[in-house]
Write a structure and sequence with these properties.
Layout: H1 3-21, H2 27-32, E1 38-45, E2 49-50, H3 54-64, E3 69-72, E4 79-80, E5 85-92, H4 93-122, E6 130-132, H5 142-151, E7 165-167, H6 169-175, H7 178-188, E8 195-199, H8 202-211, E9 215-219, H9 223-233, E10 238-242, H10 250-254, E11 260-262, H11 265-268, E12 275-282
Parallel strand pairs: 6-11, 7-8, 8-9, 9-10, 10-11
Antiparallel strand pairs: 1-5, 1-12, 2-4, 3-5
Helix pairs in contact: 1-3, 3-4, 4-5, 6-7, 7-8, 8-9
């Protein structure tokens, strides 16, 4: 992750997570380790997958003890196997004990997302369609989860509500129709902003095209209607398919010829990748 991004955005989130786990003190560690002592531990992979979040893992320990040294044997995006030694960690034993769970929580979650994303992205590698994530992320975890999607081979949709215009069903309802919503967006937004609109049927699609939408999201439409939709768009706008997209059905969706497929499952339904901190001992 970019060092500047880490300083400005990530550290405060990592500190929040550490404060959640250590509200006043780590009473167990303080009971068994009364003074500073250097120790070593190993980061062991317990499942096959794709690793992501190694720098985040390291940073958690360094926020507790800036002298902690982590020697990595893999980098983000690498395929890993059960039993692989991912890293050696050396530092104050108290920091290693107190930071272990928080560091592992980030690494396991991010690696799980990268692993699932890689599996889904591989199903699209012979098509023109790009795989996108969504805003269906864990609160306060978005920067980590969207990074993990990129590590896994996916692409990021808008980061947050300030990042782009996406007119969804409730915006259309509030505005009084597709055409009105697009017209209002064009009037309000800077000209450099693309306007994406979500449509649920071919009638809405035609309205969006007539109003000059830049991107059309085909939301929860049948395969047959999506095929007709791509024919109707005919290159006049970019197309995105969304709604209940999983690795089980994505290959069929890619054959339709949409430019993008977005999947909330990448971030909200990925199982963790099991990794563990083992063999802690004093040196």
């Amino acid at each position: 992750m970019n060092p500047i991004t880490t300083t400005l955005n990530v550290d405060q989130l990592l500190l929040m997570a550490l404060r959640e786990d250590i509200s006043s003190e780590d009473v167990t560690t303080n009971a068994v380790m009364r003074e500073s002592r250097t120790g070593c531990a190993q980061l062991i992979c317990k499942q096959d997958g794709v690793i992501a979040g190694l720098d985040v893992f390291k940073r958690v320990f360094q926020l507790l003890d800036e002298t902690v040294c982590v020697t990595m044997y893999f980098k983000d995006g690498d395929s890993v196997k059960n039993g692989d030694l991912l890293a050696d960690i050396k530092g104050d034993i108290r920091a290693l004990l107190s930071g272990e769970r928080t560091a592992l929580n980030f690494l396991q979650r991010m690696s799980g997302i990268a692993t699932y994303t890689r599996k889904v992205a591989d199903l699209l590698k012979d098509s023109k369609t790009r795989l996108l994530d969504t805003r269906k992320t864990t609160p306060n975890m978005r920067i980590f989860e969207k990074y993990a999607v990129k590590v896994g081979g996916g692409y990021n949709h808008r980061y947050n509500l300030s990042d782009g215009i996406l007119i969804k069903d409730n915006h259309i309802g509030a505005a009084g129709g597709v055409a009105k919503a697009i017209a209002m967006a064009k009037e309000y937004a800077p000209f450099v902003r693309k306007i994406e609109v979500e449509v649920e049927n071919l009638t809405m699609l035609q309205e969006a095209l007539d109003a000059g939408a830049d991107i059309i999201m085909l939301d929860n439409m049948s395969i047959e209607d999506m095929e007709k939709a791509v024919e109707m768009v005919a290159g006049k706008a970019e197309t995105e398919c969304s709604g209940n997209v999983t690795k089980e059905n994505i290959a069929r969706l890619a054959k339709i010829g949409v430019d993008y497929i977005s999947s909330g499952a990448l971030t909200h339904s990925s199982p963790i990748l099991d990794v563990s901190l083992k063999n802690l001992h004093a040196v």
